[in-house]
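>> received
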Amino acid sequence: MHIVYPAVVSVLLFSIGVYGVLARRNTILVLMSVELMLNAVNLNLVAFDVWLRDRLHSGQVLTLFVIVIAAAEVGLGLAIVLALYRNRRTVDLDRLRALAEPGTPDPSASAAGAPEPAPGSGSPERVSVPAAPGAGSPRPAGTASGSPGSSGPDPGAGPGPDLGPDPGAGPRPGSGTAPGADDAGPGTVTP
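>> returned
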């Protein structure tokens, strides 16, 4: 087989990959386009290794390294995409341009016209709210509803700590146990 055929296929694959990276806005499709480009490089490495009749098969060995790096890139890339989707609820690259968390004020806007507080005057953003009894340390302002300068609970905070089942709540649906049946605690045997 002549070297032109795999070279043309490789150029086509690489061109499709470059188009996908430059034109697509979906992060998953951009990652797939990068994989197409890496596969085009692998095809070139193997084709030229066979065409040059390399005794050490260095093109094929390098191809194995590229495959391993591509697998690591996919794993890390998908983990980043999942984390971005959990935080931003989108994988559109146009909406992911800003590195700041959504809902945080723009630092350039605050530096443009807002006066700096005097040193030692105490900033209203740092007001502590006493926590409920047994809840641990006080929370900073903005995490508890009703605190000064707060517009409600922090949307990124998620649910509170798991404090276990409510003893007076009765049986859970589908559990088939009576209320208080598992009140003995972990590690104890009930007759």
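>> Residues 142-147 have pLDDT under 50 and may be disordered.
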